[in-house]
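Format notes (please read before filing issues)

Several people have asked whether sequences and structure tokens are stored in separate files. They are not. Every record keeps both together, in the order shown below: the sequence lines, then the token lines. Line labels are part of the format and must not be stripped during preprocessing.
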Amino acid sequence: MHINFAYDILNKNFLDCVIEAKNKADESKSAVKMLSALSQSEKILVIMDRGFDGLKMIEHCNRIPNLSYLIRVRSGK
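Then the structure lines:
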């Protein structure tokens, strides 16, 4: 199993969870699905680990109102 989840740090609350078979896991698609479900009326800060980087993810995040994001990327070594 592969699990991706969205967690609200301030309210100590899970917001969303996507569970997939490990051989069919697509972290980016899971992240897009969860980001699309977030409330767009409040300011949101999303922090993503490696594996979520890429131009498509950045473009998707840029299109969501009131969303700020931080994505950890792999080093170029």
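For reference, the curators noted about this record: The radius of gyration is 13 Å. The first strand starts at residue 2 and ends at 8.
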